[in-house]
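A reminder before we start the practical. When you read a complex entry, don't treat the lines as separate problems. The point of joint prediction is that each chain is placed relative to the others, so the output describes one connected object in space. Small molecules and nucleic acid strands, if listed, are placed in the same frame. In the example below there are two entries. Take a minute to note the order of the lines before looking further.
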Amino acid sequence: MKTVVWQSLSEQQRESLLQRPAITAGENVTAIVKDIITDVRQRGDEALLELAEKFDKVRPESITVRQEEIQAASDRLSEDMKQALQQAYANIAKFHKAQKAKPLQVETQPGVICEQVTRPINAVGLYIPGGSAPLPSTVLMLGVPAQIAGCRRVVLCSPPPIADEILYVAQLCGITDVYNIGGAQAVAAMAYGTESVSRVDKIFGPGNAFVTEAKRQVSNDFNGAAIDMPAGPSEVMVIADSSADPDFIAADLLSQAEHGPDSQVVLVTPEPSIADRVADAIASQLSSLSRADIARQALGSSLMIIADSITQCVSISNHYGPEHLIVQTRNPRDLVPLLDNAGSIFLGRWSPESVGDYASGTNHVLPTYGYTKTYSSLGLADFTKRMTVQELSADGLLELAPTVETMATAEGLDAHRRAVSIRVEKIKQSRASTLKEA
Amino acid sequence: MKTVVWQSLSEQQRESLLQRPAITAGENVTAIVKDIITDVRQRGDEALLELAEKFDKVRPESITVRQEEIQAASDRLSEDMKQALQQAYANIAKFHKAQKAKPLQVETQPGVICEQVTRPINAVGLYIPGGSAPLPSTVLMLGVPAQIAGCRRVVLCSPPPIADEILYVAQLCGITDVYNIGGAQAVAAMAYGTESVSRVDKIFGPGNAFVTEAKRQVSNDFNGAAIDMPAGPSEVMVIADSSADPDFIAADLLSQAEHGPDSQVVLVTPEPSIADRVADAIASQLSSLSRADIARQALGSSLMIIADSITQCVSISNHYGPEHLIVQTRNPRDLVPLLDNAGSIFLGRWSPESVGDYASGTNHVLPTYGYTKTYSSLGLADFTKRMTVQELSADGLLELAPTVETMATAEGLDAHRRAVSIRVEKIKQSRASTLKEA
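Here is the predicted structure of the whole assembly.
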């Protein structure tokens, strides 16, 4: 890890230090993904099976995973594993249930009632990557909010063979539509539908460069599907003062570094001695990791920044906008009001990132690559949409009419004005005639 | 307007009837916008001035609108206009203030505290189109939530000369950074910054095909800016039963039709006689409109659908997913729980769309083109982002540790497991030694 002293840097050096490495899908990936999407749209299931053979080196017996297979997976799983997954499920469900939006009703002026109501997105698709190890935690992070939001149809795609842990969590989350498909073709199938896979409105989940590019392409198509958020490499920043335990910090930095060679790992501290001791602890912990090679690569481009003060650490963090921010200082809670632009914040020495990755209750799908400035930690809101409702009484309309008529006139929209004035006339006429009769 | 009987259509005919016309920016627009963005990034203000001359046929004296000009605009405005704008401001502010998110804190299991906090997006850019008439209502719909959210910097761009109404509303909303720039170049300036225009994190607002394409391009760039939502032509659907007033429906349909030749206007009713009477009322109201030509073009591609029942009307609406939905039935409120996929819903005979367009309090920036299935009516949430925070006690961590360790092992992530187990060991050691000392 490179160590730099913040005060010694020019404004421009600071900017470039915190700059993320450029991500480009590459012309190559863009074109391949475009072809895959076209192929899936044209040939449906047949294309899915052929592409699975080509890219995943497996032609699944069937695209749809049968209920019996899901049940069998659950039967094979150890009790320990089931208990762990159930505990994580319970915590994530509790935190996401608390995010339910309450209906909102406001009488903005007498007789003018404005409301905001929330509805689940009807059909959502969850993409779960394959690879050497299964990712049941990602199924939890996507499946639990989809279930709580009340999405009517939840589709899960993952490259075959799908691990027992994934099928078990899918069952916990009430997901019945599970498909043996991975890669860009899975995204295409969910966005446009095939004979086996019914199309969804919004697609969630992480993936490799092809999956990310496919999500980008379908979300740019008016007839495609919406997506959760743009994706970038995973990141952690740790703010530490002299009270922090260097072993803990080293373990946290390494747990980010093992994700992938492109993981971003940054320590910011006003204590040069902490930086030194963390470096030693990393060296000693690194050797025993199974993914030491990956972690070593990630650490190669990682940073230790020596700041002037904790206040400066906070301002560096707000500028960088990390996906994960771990605060190991004497009074971490005091810093929360000052912190901005972070996906998820972990306070104090007993809150390692990995509890949030798995089981504390917060979502591990977070904006990366500086998108923390505009995007949110994934939550129930991402599986719903807000509609507004309004209802005016005759008196409410009479009272508001001059305002609307004046503004519509200024904007040159006659018919907008008339939609109001034609009603006002009728109200006045009807009241006049009632008065006459009486 | 074309009238069709829903029951007489095949499934496929129904699909294609509700299909929106294809939108394509055109290779041409894509390329022009790409060049404009490159030019603004390279040459900054100088490019902005030249592009204004080229496209808007005005070279503004200065890119920045001075405070005195804003004050002068306000002085020129009539009292009636100011009062109307103030009333609209008050209602919109009241409804959007009510949307403030409350901080959320949940103890998911003993000693494990998870929170959700909300922060304003730091810098936002508002685009206000020019054209024959000013659009102060759009400034309200974007400026009010930006102000209430507490965005630190709010930038407004509009092609010169900027109307007094727009400058006055900008002042009401506390916007001080107003720029004489329009078109794709304004979007580029806000996304990347120039000497005069400081860059923003997220860009909001409607515009022509060039503005829309520029927003799409900058939102696809990792170094660009986020945007509010995808844009399509404006739409209204009216559900009416025999209790509805045909004159009101005609006025509402026309107020949508006058927006532009590509506006979508649909009436759904179980009463053929209502459709006939609405057609007559449209014919009689149309002639006196200043924008009759535009409205006539829009009506050319518009629809009256005769349904079997109000239930079928609701299901057609949910399938179509209109931006605006007006419900003129005997008991409109009874339908709300059944309605889905609408941007904003107007209940009953005294709630024309134009009250929501201007002054009732709801936002008029709404998803169109079927995006109501996944996107929300613009609200305070779009000017903020949610971060999660968590804090575990030593006991909380001890209790949760086995779950995290089991899951990390299953996912093959050693360092994730160790970030927990290294802490658990220390807690146990420290408690053992305390016990020994005692």
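Discuss with your neighbour: The mean pLDDT of chain A is 95. What might explain this?
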